[in-house]
Amino acid sequence: MEDERVARVWLSGVCEPGDASVWRLVREVGAAEAVAAIQRGRVPRGSGATEKKVVGWGMRAGAFDLEGALFICAQFGGRVVCPGDAEWPSTLDQLGEAAPLLLWVRGSVDLRAVCLRSVAVVGARAASPYGLRAAADLGAELADRGWTVVSGGALGVDGAAHRGVLAADGTTVAVLASGVDVAYPPRHEAMFGEIAAAGLLVSEWPPTVHPTRPRFLVRNRVIAALTKGTVVVEADLRSGALNTAHHARSLGRHLMAYPGPVTSLMSRGCHELLRATPPHTRLVTCAADVLEEVGPIGEGLDRPDGRPVLPRDHLDPDTRAVLEAVPAGSRGAPTHAIAVAASLDLPTTRSRLALLAATGFIDRTRSGWRLRTPHTPPL
Asked: pTM, whole model, 2 decimals?
């Protein structure tokens, strides 16, 4: 088993993540034999790896220092998480042939545990003040409600979301397109240190590896797969955040977007997501909106605008009419009186009264029905 683990580490330094041919090769012969085949320069045809690609892997193998990568990882207290480990998030397996072979992780919290209640917050690097404020507020609000925020550590919306979580003493995960010891962008070095102390830095690339343009797009699938849903705060029509959104949609995750001014170029991508047919994207403006989508039933009902959504607001019109006709106080009203007040027939009234009693809105007394007293509110 240890040989398989070390082999995956070797493959992470020799083969680019997201390469389906590597994944198929490992599935077919195992990681250790895949390494041996690449070193021989001959891999099974079933993997789909071309001769050109095998030659390229061989050239990179000569430049990759396996022991050095593991030593650096140990120096900053990092670890390697592989499929089958208790810490491995099983949601990553839904990526199929694009699933990671492993993850390099820096930080003390458990990756799988913190991702069970997590939301991705992504957006433009060249974010507007509006986008930065929205992302920071959303990160802080989600953290206050016990949710993990996952993003990419980039300038703009990503960084604002991470900082919002850190300011609220929450947990945030940065999925990087570089090694977890490489501060990119450099101005986020201090922030990455804070994230490593309170959350996690995650990457498919070994230590010392620097990002490239394609790697930012490759890592986006991991952001989408780790989380319950993705929120796009700001994005132009060619934003990398839309790439994350498309991964979220293909994985069946909840996809949400913040609206912006119609004159803002940085919101055109969000507006296109919201206009799509069928409507796969939900418009959100705060953490409560987000948690209504991704959280358990009932989470996110308290609105930040001072107008709480009460359980009775979700009742159908007939049930609500019956509830309005039930009196408060110690004496109750008989069923026929409630039917008259609600302008409904007796069978409908009886069924709605039974429902309201079962859900805790009303109580039955000797004289009829009355509202449940304030000290015993309905669930």
From this structure: 0.78
